[in-house]
Amino acid sequence: MAQSDTVDRILDAAEELFAERGFSETSLRMITSKAKVNLAAVNYHFGSKNALIQAVFARFLTPFTVTLDTAFDDLEARCKDVPPTLEQTLWALTESAVRMPQRNEKGISIFMRLLGLAYTQSQGHLRKFLEAEYSNPFGRFMKLLKDATPDLSAVDRYWRIQFMLGATAFTMSSSDALREILENKLGVETSVEEIAARLVPFLSAGLQAEIVVLPPMTDETFA
Amino acid sequence: MAQSDTVDRILDAAEELFAERGFSETSLRMITSKAKVNLAAVNYHFGSKNALIQAVFARFLTPFTVTLDTAFDDLEARCKDVPPTLEQTLWALTESAVRMPQRNEKGISIFMRLLGLAYTQSQGHLRKFLEAEYSNPFGRFMKLLKDATPDLSAVDRYWRIQFMLGATAFTMSSSDALREILENKLGVETSVEEIAARLVPFLSAGLQAEIVVLPPMTDETFA
DNA sequence: CGGTTGCTCAAACGTATGTTTTAAACAGAC
DNA sequence: GTCTGTTTAAAACATACGTTTGAGCAACCG
User: Which residues bind DNA (chains A, B) (predicted)?
Assistant: First the structure.
């Protein structure tokens, strides 16, 4: 190995193992043995395990946010005055994720799973890192969502966005396993693109559901 | 302390710590020192850490499934011939969760968080345990969902149920953090009951969204 | 050529973990 | 009173972890 493809091999192995098992459950020794590099290489190149986790995220998140930013530019250019619709915004996001150059066939699945983990596993350092580095494109997405759902209150919108993120991250993070189950059970093959195509209408309908009047949790609620 | 409230003190402490930090991130020493019992007591009473995790789940899941089963009985009794609607089914589930007798004020939050963790943190032993012990009530819920959405194809329903589970598990597994963010940002306090009340209409609308005609993923899709 | 630099390697370090063991106390039941 | 099941205490166990060290190696530069 001429020069350090060691760094990339570590990142590849770490990415895959983190996605499979989570952060705490993945040891540096697993990573380095999968990457076929020396154990000390991680601390030499990245400084610490936490820094490696952040590097894994930076490697796919930075190009993604660039793609996403131009997708939003295109979208806003097409919709001169009126704000983009909810469906258009969601499709722009989905397209950017699906069309990302992938390192391997599992690319999009790993991508989503890691995003889910970042939310779920409460790694303080990761949350701070992501907030510091990527708050801008995320904020732009939120702004578009806000303009596309003017009838929602801020609180309603906040929660529905969480529901949306949850459905997406969860489904995509285990989409390989889910696809397999479906194939065995119903004999149907499904691509990630098709899952996305089913997901967008679901999310769109959920986001635009009729607003409930709180508090609804009385005995009559269940009658 | 006359006889073994040691077991309950261990379960209480473990439940709370697991919900706060996850399974791998919680050590037996944290649990025993919080419970103010001896370290060896865990292995004496439960045999292993994994067995303790399963015991924590069994303690709240068993009464919950009993409650849920009677809730489904009531529901089907009220709807003599016609199958219960989607909203009714979802509310029956939500009601059973919210109305569960709680050990303390954090009860329902911990309950949800643990369920989310069970899905998210891929603890092999836990998944097997839950499948072996609680597959029946889950199957009944699926049957009700199927009867409530007769217009959906099996494939569409399959994916939309995944989306639904994802939104729920994901939101609930980090609901404390999400609640905090919302409180800091908008100065609004939200109870778990209110989250559930917002979630049900979202899921219901998503499940009943118009069915898309595949394949929609052409360049024109994004135009 | 000598010296510096970037990198790899095996080995060790210190710490934390789950688990086990020993002993001694304590309770209630027969 | 004795026995049985609990509980505590303290210590040790073996293992795994993230991190550090120092020697070695190759390439590059003056």
Answer: 27-46
> Structural domain boundaries of chain B?
1-47, 57-208
Q: Are A81 and A145 in contact (CB under 8 A)?
A: no
Distance between CA atoms of B107 and B101, rounded to whole angstroms?
8
**Which residues from chain A sit within 8 angstroms of residue B193, using beta carbons?**
215, 217
Report pLDDT digits (tens) over A102-112.
776 667 778 87
What is the rounded average pLDDT of the residues A104-124? 75
Q: Which fold has domain A1-47?
A: Arc Repressor Mutant, subunit A (1.10.10)
Report how far residue A16's alpha carbon sits from residue A106's, in angstroms, rounded to the nearest whole number.
9
Helix axes A175-186, A154-173, angle to 10 degrees: 70
pTM greater than the 0.85 cutoff: no
Beta strands in chain A (DSSP E): none
Q: How far apart are CA B13 and CA B31, in angstroms?
A: 6
Q: What is the DSSP letter of B79?
A: S
Instruction: Give, in Å, how far the C1' of C15 lies from the CA of B8.
Output: 31
Residue closest to B83 by CA, chosen among B139, B141, B137, B144 = B144
Whether A188 and A182 have beta carbons less than 8 Å apart is answered as yes
Residues 54-113 of chain B with CB under 8 A from chain A are: 88, 91-92, 95, 98
Domain B57-208 in CATH 3.40.50.2300: no
Chains A, B: CB contacts within 8 A come to: 172
Q: Which long-range contacts (CB under 8 A, 24 or more apart) does B21-27 make?
A: B21/A122, B22/A24, B22/A121, B22/A122, B22/B117, B22/B121, B23/B53, B23/B117, B23/B121, B23/B123, B24/A22, B24/A24, B24/A25, B24/B121, B25/A24
